[in-house]
């Protein structure tokens, strides 16, 4: 399984000699917060120093932010780093993922020779996951379960009650549940869906989060795992290269946690523009999955739409090769009103020309 991700502006630049209007990467359209930028610049004065290998100050800041013990937090070079690190540490023999789903779960599992079971989400049912059916798929012998909320690439949300049903099934089977909440900060009321509060009573649970999307820090690479089990977190910290997070990324993360007004502004913007973009795409005759994150999955009969938009300087995420999806399924980020309007105009012109 070899899939490419969005955000390849460098490849576009090399091909076309210009930067694209990039809807293929689900990153904050507001850019890097000024407080984070200033912290990163100040950190350059200490660039000759090795970064703290245990991310002590950053973990203490995260602990205060989430009310989780600092020893239960592990920081990494993006959430993807932690996904691979978890698989290398736990070495599961059998694991469960959804299809479609974030492809790095399966890649990481296959890298440790794990047998992966795919729970197929039905296109005819709008790719909505049945918590009961998924819980029944967590059988004896399942050792690791990856689940994303909001789901990627659909953006659909599971309620706390649905997640509790799944977590109970994982506990009964002796499986480690890894809940990816990297897009949770774009949800209108994240506290109503996040399972971070369940960590205190569920030592088997691991929640993944990242600064990447919310704070426009994709190039700095900073993610973290909140673990119910402090001993597992320590093993996870020790099982990697000594300096997984740069000094600059650590300082940027500490500053980002102070950007409450930025996060509120971003969430409000995404909420408004997601609805506007959804209506615009539906108005063009496209089938749209009504997700709750900062992206939308939609279907077009024009299988070449992605390439036609690329020639116009616009990047979308082509999901047609993703397991569980077929040609014509595309994913777009939700960006500013002006950028979203430009996307809708371009799609309309391409579809009108046939």
How would you portray this structure in words?
By secondary structure, the chain is α/β, with parallel strands linked by helices. It folds into 2 domains: 9-31 and 260-352, Aspartate Aminotransferase, domain 1, CATH 3.90.1150; 34-256, Aspartate Aminotransferase, domain 2 (3-Layer(aba) Sandwich), CATH 3.40.640.10. 38% of the residues lie in helices and 16% in strands. The chain is built from 12 helices and 13 strands. The chain has a 7-stranded mixed β-sheet, sandwiched between helices. Helix 4 packs parallel to helix 5 and helix 6 runs parallel beside helix 7 (160-173). The longest helix has 24 residues, at 260-283. The two termini are 32 Å apart. The model has no long low-confidence stretch (mean pLDDT 95).
Quaternary organisation of the protein chains = single chain
Shape-level CATH architecture of the largest domain: 3-Layer(aba) Sandwich
Strand content: 15-25%
* Helical content class: 25-40%
Which class of the largest domain in CATH terms?
Answer: Alpha Beta
Counted beta strands: 13
C-alpha end-to-end distance: 32 Å
CATH fold-level name of the largest domain: Aspartate Aminotransferase, domain 2
Summarize this entry quickly.
This protein is an alpha/beta fold and 354 residues long. It has helices at residues 9-16, 34-43, 56-66, 79-90, 103-110, 131-137, 160-173, 230-238, 247-256, 260-283, 305-311, 337-352, and strands at residues 21-22, 73-76, 94-99, 115-120, 144-148, 176-180, 206-210, 223-227, 287-289, 295-299, 314-315, 317-318, 329-333.
